[in-house]
Amino acid sequence: MRYSHALVVAVWAAASVFMGGCREKKTEEAKSGTSTETQTTATTPSRDTILLGHVGATSGGEATYGLSSDNAFKLAVEEQNKKNGIKGKKLELKTLDDQGKPEEAAVTATRLITQDKVTLILGPETSGRSLAVAPIADQNRIPMITQSATSAKVTQDGDKTRPYVFRTCFIDPFQGTVMAKFARENLKVNKVAILRDVGSDYSVGLANSFTAKFTAMGGQIVGDVSFKSGEPDFKAQLTAVRGKNPDAIYVPAYYTEVALIGRQARELGMKQPLMGGDGWDSPKLFEVAKGALDGSFYSNHYSPDDPSPVVQEFITKYKKAYNATPDAFAVLGYDAANLAFAAMERAKDLSGPSIREELENTKSFKGVSGTVHIDEKHNAIKSAVVIGIEKNAPKFNATVEP
């Protein structure tokens, strides 16, 4: 989500070169045994196994996303194997760490497809990395399901839908609309300032969709200030925003920057609520914010406060396996894996084209995060929730239907 289209193009070009080399020899990293990978079973699939690849960030600034997703994928694989796998074949999962970098995501996806011969790619978690992997999946006719990349561009190649790329999360135009409506109707906000990460497709997309809906509902954007991820000091931007006297501040960014922005805003005496999207969802948000985000709100895919049996059953299983409450990335990962399994079971065979066809036919798939319908653009039509922050902890506020 943090990289420009130009960089994605460059990444894709580099990955194309890499693919040719991968067919002839293993990487030096693989030879030396220094690869940053984890897997549930052996690395080499047999004729009686189905190998799935996870391209995810298990290190770096987005590591909580990848680790939560990986836990959920492993749990789903374990459960499916207890049901005799898919078409009588056991499943295996191989995870490669993309370090939160689009260029690394392209390389790891290429390796999983050309060397390891995976049947399907799960991930990546963010839009920037998913944009880097999507053309690789299409070229090799290997289905890719991102559980949490919300940029509308991920499943689109210009004005065409990418044939092999799918998602199980809602997209940014819906998510931005959710928070705009919540701001106007629930918080009764009239004036909003925006802090956007100009290097992030995710942040820019959310900011644009929020702005369009908020202004259409009669609200006013009094300031639109930019930053780039990795910056530790946001006081100059916040000072500029403070001078506009907004009722609230919309910060569509990831948890690391959001927590710092929240703390620095309070240090400047700014008491306005902050609002954002699912990129806020991480335990690290609260560790770093230290209460500075109390009274703020963000859109998300699920809430552990949801009393529905399917949600509470998953939370119980996840806690038993990992001694932690699942975040949205775990829930979305679990749903993505099980949606893939259902499509694979229905498919006439386990080829990429056959699985792709059944992914396209997915309607009314009942997941933990809600009922998923895959539309003609390979996006998931589903509900969203709004989470409030109280006493430095998330609390369910509302559900918004599509």
From TrEMBL:
Q: Which UniProt keywords apply?
A: Amino-acid transport, Signal, Transport
The protein's matches in Gene3D superfamilies, at most eight in alphabetical order, are given as: 3.40.50.2300
Any matching Pfam family? Peripla_BP_6
TM annotation in the entry: none
**Occurrences of domain Leucine-binding protein (ranges):** 50-387
| Keyword Transport attributed | yes
Q: Give the family from UniProt.
A: Belongs to the leucine-binding protein family.
What protein am I looking at?
Answer: ABC transporter substrate-binding protein
